[in-house]
């Protein structure tokens, strides 16, 4: 007889803003690092150019670009310089 698992599986969770600023900053930092790492892996594996511009809750700006943010943005703009 198959054993039944007592876990939550795929359940819906409500997304809401965190109430503590310190927790929000730590979660943002971890998410930012993971996002940049994943973008770097995709650029390496797929040989693509990518740029990320991330705004933090503290109004700071972070960027990631492969080969550089300026190069990727200039290649997307009409009439951009090479």
Provide an overview of this structure.
By secondary structure, the protein is an alpha+beta fold. The protein is built from 2 helices and 2 strands, in the order αββα. The protein has helices spanning about 20-45, 70-75, and strands spanning about 50-55, 60-65. A two-stranded antiparallel ribbon has the order 1-2. Strand 1 (about 50-55) and strand 2 form a beta hairpin. The radius of gyration is 19 Å and the shape is extended.
Give the topology:
Elements: H1 21-46, E1 50-55, E2 61-66, H2 69-76
Antiparallel strand pairs: 1-2
Categorize the overall geometry.
extended
Q: Main sheet, how many strands, which sense, barrel?
A: 2 strands, antiparallel
- Please state the structural category: alpha+beta
How many helical elements?
2
Order of helices and strands: HEEH
- The fraction of residues assigned to DSSP E strands is 5-15%
Enumerate the strands of the largest sheet in spatial order, edge to edge or round the barrel.
1-2
Mean pLDDT: 87
Radius of gyration: 19 Å
Low-pLDDT runs of 5+ residues are none
Our measurement of the CA-to-CA distance between the termini, rounded to an integer number of angstroms, reads 66 Å
What percent of residues adopt helix (DSSP H or I)? Answer: 40-55%
Number of strands: 2
Summarize the structure.
By secondary structure, this protein is of the alpha+beta class.
């Amino acid at each position: 007889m198959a054993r039944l698992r007592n876990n939550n599986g795929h359940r819906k969770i409500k997304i809401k803003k965190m109430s503590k600023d310190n927790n929000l900053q730590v979660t943002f930092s971890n998410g930012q690092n993971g996002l940049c790492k994943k973008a770097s892996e995709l650029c390496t594996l797929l040989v693509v150019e990518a740029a990320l511009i991330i705004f933090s809750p503290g109004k700071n700006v972070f960027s990631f670009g492969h080969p550089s943010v300026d190069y990727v943005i200039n290649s997307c703009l009409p009439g951009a310089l090479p």
